[in-house]
Amino acid sequence: MNIGVLALQGAVAEHIRSIGLAGGQGVAVKKTEQLADIDGLIIPGGESTTIGKLMRKYGFIEAIRDFANGGNPVFGTCAGLIVMAKRLEGAEEPHLSLMDMTVARNAFGRQRESFETNLDVKGIDTPLRAVFIRAPLIKEVSDRVEVLSMYKGEIVTARQDHLLASSYHPELTDDYRLHELFIQMAKEASGVKAD
Ligand code: GLN
Q: Which atom of ligand 1 is nearest to the CA of 51?
């Protein structure tokens, strides 16, 4: 599977590495035309306001919405999760408005700006190693969205059909099982028999 990583800003190389470890082919996506050649897209962590601005500037809002609405999988991590949400707490406008959820940015407060933990994730048999960096939280989801994991009572991983989102950075450890899950979603979407 060819998995694109949106390369406007943020942790791009790390996702490409994790995709490789998980058995896929990662490629940096800098132009909208490249979406035609990939089976799934990862929107990395970074700064959601900056990623949103650059997506608008380079025509990625419409292009990614079309890509996703055509049934292609999209996976947003941290800032990437923020840009996928239909609703953001506070004054900020949503960006891609793809996933039916409300997200709060920088939801852990200063004391816990960044930390690592083990998370139980539905579909992954032992706890996943996860790195949270000024992470957002999913405050509310519609019934179209499946909650895959919680951290201290708050939603941190969710899936809506072919859309996947995590509050944390799964690409900063050697635990690539969420990338494996995403590659599986890409296989299912392109009609390749799961192995
Ligand atoms: N705090 C960032 C934001 O609001 C997200 C941080 C991250 O992606 N690690 O965009």
A: 10
Sign of the CA dihedral running 105, 106, 108, 109: negative
Distance of CA 60 to CAs 81, 121, 173, 177, Å? 16, 30, 28, 27
Are 36 and 69 contacting, i.e. CB atoms less than 8 angstroms apart?
no
**138 close to ligand 1 (CB < 6 Angstrom):** no
Fold for domain 2-194?
Rossmann fold (3.40.50)
- Which mutation among 106, 156, 171 tests ligand 1's pocket best, with the greatest number of atoms within 8 A of CB? 106
Q: How far apart are CA 85 and CA 141, in angstroms?
A: 10
pLDDT digits (tens, 9 = 90+) for 82-133: 999 999 999 889 999 999 999 999 998 766 789 999 999 999 999 999 999 9
Q: Spell 133-149 as b/e; 16+ CB within 10 A means b.
A: bbbbbbbebeeebeebb
Does residue 82 have its Cβ closer than 6 Å to ligand 1?
yes
With 0.90 as the threshold, say if the pTM is over it: yes
